[in-house]
Amino acid sequence: MKKTQTPPLCETFADVPGAQAAWRLFEACRHQGGSTRPIAAFLVSLHNAEFACPDAYLLCRRIDDAHFDDVIAVMRWFRQGQPRGFDLYYIFGSAGPAPVLDLMERFGMLPRRRSKKA
Question: Could you tell me which residues come within 8 angstroms of residue 60 by beta carbon, excluding any fewer than 6 positions away?
Fold first, then answer.
């Protein structure tokens, strides 16, 4: 399974605490383990809730305090209201949605293609 490097934050979001917390969470997901799946589901759900639904129990019980604080920071940032049409991957600038798609692929969250009926 290919693990791409987490791109740096684009200049617009470099000093935004919520974006910095999201970056740390993306970086944490580069290492698969018991705590990374709930973090990946959380991040993917912010991109598109149809592909992942975070499990609050696992977020509360399986991640360490630093990652939990980052989840809360990202949630607080999203609650503050981003501009209409904002997507999480904007924090990576020119990398586009690649970091989110990488997470979806590595954690098996890509949508399944529907087969065409004859």
Answer: 68
pTM of the entire structure? Answer: 0.87
Which sequence spans correspond to the domains of the chain?
11-106
Distance, CA of 7 to CA of 99 (rounded, Å): 8
The pLDDT profile of the chain, 118 residues, written as one tens digit per residue, is: 455 789 999 999 999 999 999 999 999 998 877 789 999 999 999 988 888 889 999 999 999 999 999 999 999 998 887 666 688 999 999 999 999 999 999 999 987 655 555 4
